[in-house]
Design a protein that fits this description.
- This protein has three helices and seven strands.
- It is α+β, with helices and mostly antiparallel strands.
- Strands 1-7-6-5-4-3-2 form a seven-stranded antiparallel beta sheet.
- The radius of gyration is 20 Å and the shape is globular.
């Protein structure tokens, strides 16, 4: 690097290498076949999605609508929580997740397991967020609570 022509000019900071942020992986098993488990997640989130993990809080209606996961308040305000990138009924929901702090990716996989279905959420791409560590911590709490509620809705113990 050549020195600055001006003695008072600060040296540029070296590029920071960002350590990879671990993915969030959460799984629950529900006592339903994959078709019903998928429908419960995709068609009925308004019945089980935790209000404390919505933009508008109490009274929020959460649904997949028009290729997106949308939250609607009691005052008809709406917020897009995620955009559907790929959907394979009974198998996969792949989402571009953007809770306002940088776009990440969420894959929800439905796998037959014994007489039930394992539902695995994998949330990746935190390096793109403004505050990767904070967004990862939020995602871990979010998916733990979302899957607990969904599991109870679907009859898991």
């Amino acid at each position: 690097m050549t020195p600055s022509l001006f003695s008072h000019a600060p040296e540029p900071e070296p590029a920071k290498s960002q350590d990879p942020i671990a993915d969030v992986v959460q799984t629950c098993t529900v006592p339903r076949e994959t078709e019903e488990a998928f429908r419960g997640f995709h068609e009925y989130p308004h019945l089980w999605w935790p209000e404390e993990f919505t933009t508008f809080g109490e009274g929020t209606h959460v649904e997949f609508e028009g290729g997106a996961l949308v939250e609607t308040s009691e005052d008809e305000e709406s917020a897009t929580r995620a955009v559907v990138r790929d959907i394979r009924p009974e198998e996969l929901l792949d989402l571009e997740w953007n809770p306002g702090t940088g776009s990440t990716t969420v894959s929800i996989v439905f796998t037959a397991e014994g007489s039930g279905t394992a539902v695995t959420v994998t949330h990746t791409g935190f390096e793109a967020a403004r505050d990767p560590a904070a967004q990862r911590a939020e995602a871990e709490s979010l998916w733990r609570n979302v899957l607990q509620r969904y599991g109870r809705f679907m009859g898991a113990r």
